[in-house]
Amino acid sequence: MSSDHSKVEYLKPEILKSLGNLELIAKEIVAGQKVGAHRSNLKGFSSEFSHHRPYAPGDPIRDLDWRVFARTEKYYTKLYEAETNFECQVLLDASSSMNYASGEVSKLEYSKYLAASICYLILNQQDTVGLSVFDSRLRAHVPPKSTMGILVEIEKSLREIDSLPKDSLSKQLHDTALQLKRRSFVILISDLFSDVDDLMSGLDHLKHDGHNVIVLQTLDPYELDFPFKGTWRFEGLESEEELITQPDRIRTDYLKNLDEHLTQVRDRCVRSNVDYLQLNTSHSLGLALSRFLQSRTMERMGPTSGISS
């Protein structure tokens, strides 16, 4: 893999698609963000909350617990106790709707690069990571390991995906909660085109069991902006009937319904203390990874908030 590529160009999804090896791509994306060798950039990512103590001058502002302040109007610092073997489970939605692409790279391909990069990032800081790929059922599962050799298994699982419509996000999340034997970070990568109550049922199960949960909602720019002109035939990606129409007739209703759905997902995640980040597949993987890491930093500083890229 040549080192002569411009980092900005190199991390564009359409260029990544032509390069092949997911493991090498993941390494390059992580190196491009300069986070691989700097564990401090993930401060709090692999730590467990221990207890509070009153704020003292000189304490880092990022460690203030703003939730406690909102209740008591007193400043308390959150103290963390680093885990010796931090564990993360990455869940990748590979259902049919993830195959949509307005450009050269589908939501699924984008999510593969992102999942591989996150796995490499976690392994590179000597922690443990596993991967589950699902649509209507679990399609692949790589048990958590802390050795770089697991990237070969992860890449194989990602490359062999053959998508089918999904029935329920909730079932896969409930199954994951039942399988996890210790408190973990769970990272869900999905377009979240699912019933919100169904989705939150699974996420709340994971939170109730003590897991830290991060949701990365991956969307295509055409889904967000609906810039279609003329007459189009829209095919249902999850087995719905096709629709032939002029987009101008439905654009206002579509964007209104989409905004309501996205707002409901974000707000419900916030209420359940689930980290939520919206990603746009037209943006570079380097930007996506950077915003992912930024969201982890912001979570240390105050209440969880929805962040859109």
Structural write-up:
The chain is of the alpha/beta class and 309 residues long. It folds into 2 domains: 7-42 and 85-308, Rossmann fold (3-Layer(aba) Sandwich); 47-81, no CATH class. 41% of the residues lie in helices and 21% in strands. It contains 11 helices and 11 strands. The chain has a 7-stranded mixed β-sheet, with helices on both faces. A two-stranded antiparallel ribbon has the order 1-2. Helix 8 (196-208) links the parallel strand 6 (185-190) and strand 7 (212-219). The two termini are 28 Å apart. 36% of the residues are buried. Residues 1-10, 35-46 and 300-307 have low confidence and may be disordered.
Shape: globular
- At the first level of CATH, the class of the largest domain is Alpha Beta
CATH fold name of the largest domain, please? Rossmann fold
Radius of gyration: 20 Å
Helix count from the secondary structure assignment: 11
Tell me the β content: 15-25%
Overall number of domains = 2
**Helix coverage percent of residues?**
40-55%
Contiguous uncertain segments of 5+ residues: 1-10, 35-46, 300-307
Mean pLDDT: 77
Strand/helix succession: HHHEHEEHEEHHEHEHEEHEHE
CATH architecture of the largest domain: 3-Layer(aba) Sandwich
Short description:
The chain has helices at 7-10, 13-17, 22-32, 66-72, 107-124, 150-159, 169-179, 196-208, 221-225, 247-271, 285-301; strands spanning 47-54, 76-82, 87-93, 128-134, 138-145, 185-190, 212-219, 232-234, 243-245, 275-280, 307-308. By secondary structure, the protein is of the alpha/beta class.
